[in-house]
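Researcher: I'd like a candidate sequence for this fold, 209 residues long. If you have to choose between options at a position, lean toward the conservative one.
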């Protein structure tokens, strides 16, 4: 039977199925991570406030905790799509701040604007709010092959700055973990591809006998 298998098509199908299985296991890892973060979203905001920045800003233990910091200098403000506390679509403004004592740069989401052209002139000061992971513009494949590298924590300011609207806070009630379903889909696709290919090879062999 093995001698009857066409070499190139078989290699292509097996490689494709292997990639689908790998994607399935990657989604399982993401699903487990999201479940942990949802639990953290529910529990950590009640923990004591801690000072930021700290040595490892990518440490997952700090996500969804309340942080406070002193933004000694604002080096820039990025504007991207987001929602305000009322759930309305707007333009969130993320300031890049410098801590004079350590020289570390960290991000603060200072609020949401209705107009994308409205850029805050906030110059810095004390901030406090819940930590979430800073925006990630990497593709899914880049994240998959990054070895699980996390983005540094960003403070979502509880009180908006410079006349902006308050930002939408992380809400576990609105959290949907779709990665479990995606994992199942990738495994299903891999099995389906192998089964269909097996029937095709069997049918082809039957016509030759």
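Model: Candidate sequence:
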């Amino acid at each position: 039977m093995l001698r009857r298998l066409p070499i190139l098509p078989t290699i292509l199908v097996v490689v494709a199925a292997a990639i689908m299985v790998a994607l399935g296991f990657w989604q399982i890892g993401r699903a487990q991570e999201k479940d942990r973060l949802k639990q953290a979203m529910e529990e950590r905001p009640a923990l004591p406030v801690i000072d930021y920045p700290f040595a490892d800003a990518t440490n997952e233990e700090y996500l969804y905790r309340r942080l406070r910091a002193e933004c000694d200098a604002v080096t820039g403000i990025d504007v991207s799509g987001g929602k305000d506390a009322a759930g309305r679509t707007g333009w969130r403004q993320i300031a890049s701040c410098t801590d004079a004592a350590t020289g570390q740069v960290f991000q603060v989401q200072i609020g949401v604007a209705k107009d994308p052209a409205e850029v805050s002139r906030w110059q810095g000061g004390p901030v406090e709010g819940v930590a979430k992971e800073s925006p990630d513009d990497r593709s899914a494949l880049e994240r998959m092959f990054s070895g699980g590298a996390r983005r540094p924590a960003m403070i979502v300011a509880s009180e908006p700055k410079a006349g902006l609207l308050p930002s939408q806070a992380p809400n576990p009630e609105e959290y949907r973990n779709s990665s479990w379903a995606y994992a199942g889909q990738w495994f299903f696709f891999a099995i389906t591809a192998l089964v269909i290919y097996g029937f095709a090879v069997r049918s082809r062999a039957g016509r030759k006998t």
